[in-house]
Design a protein that fits this description.
The chain is an alpha+beta fold and 482 residues long. It folds into four domains: 102 residues; 119 residues, 2-Layer Sandwich (Beta-Lactamase), CATH 3.30.450; 68 residues; 128 residues, Histidine kinase-like ATPase, C-terminal domain (Heat Shock Protein 90), CATH 3.30.565. 57% of the residues lie in helices and 15% in strands.
Length: 482
Amino acid sequence: METIFNAFILIPSGGLDSPYIWYSLNTILVASFILKRRIYSWINLGVYLFSSTWILFLLTKTEYSFSQVLLGESNFILSLVLFTEIVLILSEYSEKIQHKNEYLQGLNQKITAANDQIKESMNYIMELYQAVHLLTTQQDEDNLEKILTDYAIKMTHCNLAFFNKNNQTTTVTGAGSQPASTNEIEINIEELELNLSSVQSLILNDSLYILAPVKCKLKLYGYIGIKFIDIKTEEKDIADQLTFLSELGTIVLEKFELEKVNRHLLINEEQNRIANEIHDGVLQRLFSISCGIYSINKRIKNISKNVISSELSHIRISINNAMSELRSTVYGYSWNKEGVNSFVSDIKNYIDTIRKYQGVDIQLELNGEQDLLSLEQKRSIYRIISEATGNSVKHGKAKHITIQLNVEVSDILLLISDDGIGFDRNILENENRMGLGIHNMHYLVHSLDGSIKMDSNIGKGTIIIIHFPMKSKSNVCREGVI
């Protein structure tokens, strides 16, 4: 419309000689930079030239021909053509620059987003490192639940984290500085049919709950859970983070259990050492005192009072020395006499746990004297039994397991058999699916210079036969040896 209006003004005002001819530059610029098509600018220029030359020539009827008129204004026409071409070139460059700017802005936004993601990843890695360091160095089992819920808040940025143990919520941690209580948890773990092998999520009262089991192979310690008020939260990444945290908690709890077993074994080992010291020291002194009293009693009619007094004085000194040595020793006896065989009780407690939670019939047969075993052998046997029974229940689906331990003077025999589904060892080795439990058993056996044989067929159960050489053990206190 502006072009047509300007063209009509040019006709009565002198055409190319009109002072309004410069208004055409405005529409040429607009056509070049706004319409962004070359044809529109040339059409615009053509309309101006046509109206200011040909139409004006027809209306005025000058003595000059149209070609003479064009020739006379050729410089100005050429200037308009060159100006239009320059404007078009500049508009193209401007458009390219604009595209480049948009592209660079997009890259800048991506870089900013990547930097934010890197910062978030670094913070997440730092939180993971702190969680791993704190949990692996944790010595107090009572604080473990609090640490897990605290880091669940930090790692997942949830609104609420809690730990459920024995169907009771024992620890609750809220985001920020606001205190949290069990009243904010609207789910009842006991009423849910949860799968113990994976993380699960559910929506209740417009809130998203994600739960992860904290468990070892055969024992469930509890559930660590988080709550989101925004149900649109991305579940997968959060579930992976909670899974890692629950597995880390499981490792720490298993470490506590193993430390308990080790403490029991160390206590029994120390009791044996003390019993041996009493046997080698105090009992020998008492035996000498008894022999001295017997000798005095036998010669009492033939020796003087001075000799009797002197020998009784020596006996009194020996008694005082024995009492002093006995006081310097921690009172205790070999667990084969007065105490409890912790090695055997730990194995039985482990088996009782499997029976209770898995409903598996396990027969345990112990032969020989277990106090002949060294502390290292006891630890390895306990771990082998744990790994073998765990694999039988978890992978073999066994319902009956037999464990037989024979301790002889020369060697040790450990026999473990089950009625599970069995496995083909060759297939597992070829497909690289040999479990960590089997590798652990081989490592433990070989660390004690023993041998292991596994006989298993699909559908026919599994038999594990392990031999250990009985290594020399100097600090052994056997029942009945004084």
